[in-house]
Give the backbone structure.
Amino acid sequence: IVQIECTYDQPSNRRRNPAPQYIEALETRLHRMEALLKVLLPDVDVNHPNFDLGKLLSQMQTNAATRTTGKDVTAGSGRLPDVGGSATPSLSTEKDSLLESMVEAAGRLDIDESGHMDFHGHSSGIAFLAHINTQLSDLLGGDASGRALVKVRAAAFPKVFDTPGSAADSPFDGQTPNTSMLPTREVAKVLLDVCMDDACVLMRFVHRPTFDDMVNRIYEKDPNDFGDDENNHLPLLYLAFGVGCIFSCDLSEIGILDPVVEGTKYFNIGRRMIEITDCRDIPSIQCVIMMVLFLQSSARMSTCYSYVGIALSASVRMGLHRSLPETRFDPIERETRKRIFWTVRKMDTYVGALLGLPKGIADEDIDQDMPTEVDDEFITKDVILPQSDGVMPMILAANAHCRLLKIMAKMVKYIYPLKGVEASVTGKRSNYSVSSSKLREIESDLQVWLEKLPMQLRPGGDTPKELQKVQYLLKMAFAHVQMMLYRPFLHYISRPKNKGCDERPYASAANCVNVSRKIVHTADEMRKMGILNGAYWFTMYTCFFSVITLVYFVLENPEEITSLAVLRDAEIGRELLASMKDRSLAAKRCSVALATLFGNLPENLR
């Protein structure tokens, strides 16, 4: 008998340890889910021993059913309104339909006693106010458009801001650089830090190391020894001081008792030192951008539009909109060209949307790259160095803001189409409708944008203190786009809903109210954190139109169970704007309009 040894493999009883990459992937997913849950359901504690998932899901389904009636305005400060179309039928399963817009006139042409004309398209706040004022029986005042209220002027800001000037109007002879009005180095540092780190946090168009080097040269050199570089950058320095003044909260410690007056002084000096009608170099365009940052909190939006138009035409003239294969520019110059163009492009999109005016350059004419996402110190004349590990470059937030405004431009194109302009200008009423599929497409674009944000910048994420300001400004900008998306359908909030009718416009109206509440809550959080600044124009106007929306809901739905809470949010928004009126003309205009509105409310709502 042949003896053969038998062997077999016995499975190991030890557990297999998962690969580290697998664990890291799970942890990343968990953190994302927790952050999302914190935003959507801030009051839910999944670790509580009495947590009942089935009960929660049932409650959420009930709330979703309520939302589709167009009456869900119960969103708290932490709830994120529907941005992905969850309150509307699926894009792939539902037939497209047309939603009627509340903005019947596609634009309005205002002519004053002197024959001066101002046109506002139907995406503008003026068009929205005109319709709301009609609906509310002139609660905003006797002027049907409310423009007499929103164009209140403050004595602190002279009428010279109304139109771009020329160096020919300057009292300076241009022979010797005017350095006599420069502040001390200590004051200059404070003002420049505020300008660059606060006012320009989302509008980055300067390479800071290069700018700081130029500041040192201007302060250290004798004015008679200035070369072209120093002379070209001197007006930019004065304008930066002006912006730093109006964006500062308190300058009494450095001897500036009235920042608005001091800022206006620096603005006028810098403005008179450049030929604004002939911008053909980088410092000149940077000067115009700095003027816009100053004027957006101290002048009318139409004035800003004129300055933005100058900056945009100069940018195109210098080829900043093109990705040129030239090697004549070093890395600093190339990145500065990118930053300037995309900053001007953002301003053009924002101001154009607020006024209902067209963009200055078509998308198909642009092939300029986005700015490289590294901090300024990694960009040298010879090479762009890699960003430090674990450190988020601030330009990343500015680029994210730019992508958001691309969605805004798309939203204006499809939600506020040009159709009907001729009829409105001639005084005839013109209705138009919006494709529901386009609305859902833009909702999807916004959701994708939100998901692609770095975790440090997402609402509800673990945000370092130094990034809180930019995170909240992005959150406010995102909500502003949402509000403009849903605003044309706000009138559905007051319409009786017949059985079997299309639910989508009612859901959009509810979303508009929910977003407006979120905007007020966000602004209130910013105030409590000390980062709400009246000089941020889009924050003030966004908050203002949110309050108007909330008051409209309350007046149209006085018996709604949520009306009292909505009115309370409107009061908070009004108080926020009133607290900023002494430092911001935008906030002052809004406060005057809201004082009239709240003063005309029925007795039971005061």
Q: What stands out?
A: The first strand starts at residue 98 and ends at 100. Residues 158-384 form one domain. Confidence is low (pLDDT under 50) at residues 65-72, 74-94, 144-158, 420-427. The radius of gyration is 27 Å.
